[in-house]
Amino acid sequence: MPILDIFRSKKTMERPSAAFAPEPVESIADSVAEPVPAQPANILVQPLPRDLFNSRRYLENNPDLLHAASHSDNFDAYEHYVLTGHGEELAGIRPRSVPSQSPPLGLRYHADENLLERIIDLEIEKRALLSAWDSRLQDIGAITFDMLAEDVDDTTAPPLDRATCDESRLTPDQKFWRDNGYLIKENFIPHDLIDRYCEIRARHPSKFGWDCPVPYMYIEEMRDVSLYPPMMKLMESLIGEEMGLHLNLTGWVSTERNWHQDDYLNPPYINSWYAASWIALDDISADSGPFEFVPGSHKWPLLKSHKVRMFLTPEERSHTNWSKISERFVNAIADEEISRRGIAPKQFLAKKGDLLIWHGRLMHRGSVARVQDMPRKTLIGHYSGLSHRIDMPIVQRTPEGSAYFHIDMPLGFNPYEAAA
Ligand SMILES: O=C(O)CCC(=O)C(=O)O
Ligand SMILES: [Fe+2]
User: Fold this and answer.
1) Atom of ligand 1 nearest to the CA of 262
2) Which ligand is nearest to the CA of 247?
């Protein structure tokens, strides 16, 4: 069976290891559609504890997996790597021989001894829960927030999220973040950087901006804003680890994405080593569908994707857009939870250059515009702690030293060609 079919068969939640054990090496190698991306010059290499699963060796020997797993629409390939990689290596089923033409890889080793073990445990637990719940679904009445959410393990969360945090040592910004799950800095981003980016962005014909989730890979002017060094330093001081950019939202209208916590869309081991930035490129009108958020909601339990997905049909569960589909019940549940706790959501009515950083567990939304299509000029960036993204192993840096994850996805519309 070609390797991608194996990934597809995993959509039915079967573990595929037995299925591909007898597969001869050649046919796996033959199924590699494209070469493994070449190594960029500036990658991080950290020492690997000796007895840990050697993720670098595993991926080096399985270029089919590396390639597929580096494309975010093929989450199954990544799941395969996480779920079965360790077991396979132990059993000697894989790694297979390295094709001689394969280029050297610059994968970062994982220094956290427990991280891979934890990932594997969490994935197995998720699958067990899904199948157990399937059989009980018929008896369940109304869905509540409690049924979809779980307390987080604060011992593995960032330092400012831990009960044990010594508040007397915090800066005012850190204390505010700990209490509220967001931070606003007025007129923080220099207007000349914003103007240079806006000139490029304005060439894009779509109000939704780039389809590509990583346009920063190609557009220097975007990196200059989304990786503005003082902002990166600030974020690092809130999360407790250097952060790397891996997603930009470039629409100039509201996403109109209803209430959610970003961290519930992440692999479980991210556990709030995550933040996002909302940078106003112009003054934001109250009619344009401003960013809205619930202060303090980062301390609530976290919606869990496997629990939300239990209430979807099997077809919907494996759909790439499952989180959007699940809004049909998640929206009402989030609204109920917000009123039950009696907290008034806030709006970010920003002026040009204002910055809002929010926590991965903060309940937020892009509100519905009162005036349809009214411009809402923002650049949104999403970031994770560098050591927490085993699925994004290659880190690059701007000349100023800010980190972003090397993710190989086509840009689509090229603004530089449009200008020529
Ligand atoms: O449209 C918005 O402001 C919300 C965007 C959002 O939810 C996100 O970037 O995570
Ligand atoms: Fe979000």
Assistant:
1) 10
2) 1
Ligand 2 ion: Cβ-proximal residues, 5 Å cutoff: 262
Q: How far apart are CA 333 and CA 318, in angstroms?
A: 22
Q: How many CB atoms lie within 10 A of CB 374?
A: 16
Task: Spell out the residues 6+ positions from residue 220 whose beta carbon is closer than 8 angstroms to its own.
Answer: none
Is the overall model pTM greater than 0.85, yes or no? no
pLDDT higher than 50, residue 11:
no
* Domain chopping of the chain, boundaries: 3-129, 145-419
CA of 330 to the centre of ligand 2 (A): 14
The residue assigned the tokens 């330092």 is 159
CATH number of 145-419: 2.60.120.620
DSSP 260: B
**How far apart, in Å, are the Cα atoms of 380 and each of 8, 71, 259, 366?**
32, 21, 17, 11
For the CA atoms of 99, 103, 106, 108, the dihedral, rounded to the nearest 10 degrees, stands at -10
User: Is residue 313's pLDDT more than 90?
Assistant: no
For 117-154, what is each residue's pLDDT tens digit?
Answer: 555 566 566 666 666 666 565 556 678 899 889 998 89
What crossing angle do the helices spanning 172-180 and 229-239 adopt, rounded to 10°?
Answer: 60
For residue 364, the ligand 1 atom closest to its alpha carbon is: 7
